[in-house]
């Protein structure tokens, strides 16, 4: 089962930026742990600081992969274009955040993606990704599909 982990802007700096918020481990190191922990899942990782590249990746895999775990970083709160891309694809997306976005600045407490995602996981550090992967691992393919606002 192919699952994409998609990270947005500034997440390439995990392990070196704002360690009190984001921790000390790089995502690349954590991704290796995830691959070992989920041998039944075919995990792919993509990160970009560019909105268009994230949209292109969603379009590329959004009709063939079984799931997407997406941390949109700052775009979560502002990008209607990324929200539209999530809405347009068939692959279910789980929104994740390392920090608890609801305990941060007021402008960070709104997600423009949430209405088009299967669910959201926020505030569990890097483990937010693991929790999303557990969902995809445990669900049978017919149960993964989106049943809310997607066409």
TrEMBL record:
CDD domains in alphabetical order: DHQase_II
A molecular function GO annotation: 3-dehydroquinate dehydratase activity
Annotated residues for binding of substrate: 71, 77, 84, 98-99, 108
Assigned EC number: 4.2.1.10
Pfam families membership: DHquinase_II
InterPro entries in UniProt: DHquinase_II, DHquinase_II_CS, DHquinase_II_sf
Pathway as given in its UniProt record: Metabolic intermediate biosynthesis; chorismate biosynthesis; chorismate from D-erythrose 4-phosphate and phosphoenolpyruvate: step 3/7
EC top class, as a word: lyase
Sorted UniProt keywords: Amino-acid biosynthesis, Aromatic amino acid biosynthesis, Lyase
Residues the UniProt record annotates as site (Transition state stabilizer): 17
Catalytic residues in the record: 22, 97
Protein function: Catalyzes a trans-dehydration via an enolate intermediate.
Entry similarity comment: Belongs to the type-II 3-dehydroquinase family.
NCBIfam families reported in the protein's UniProt record: aroQ, PRK05395.1-2, PRK05395.1-4
Name of the protein this chain belongs to: 3-dehydroquinate dehydratase
Species of origin: Pontibacter ruber
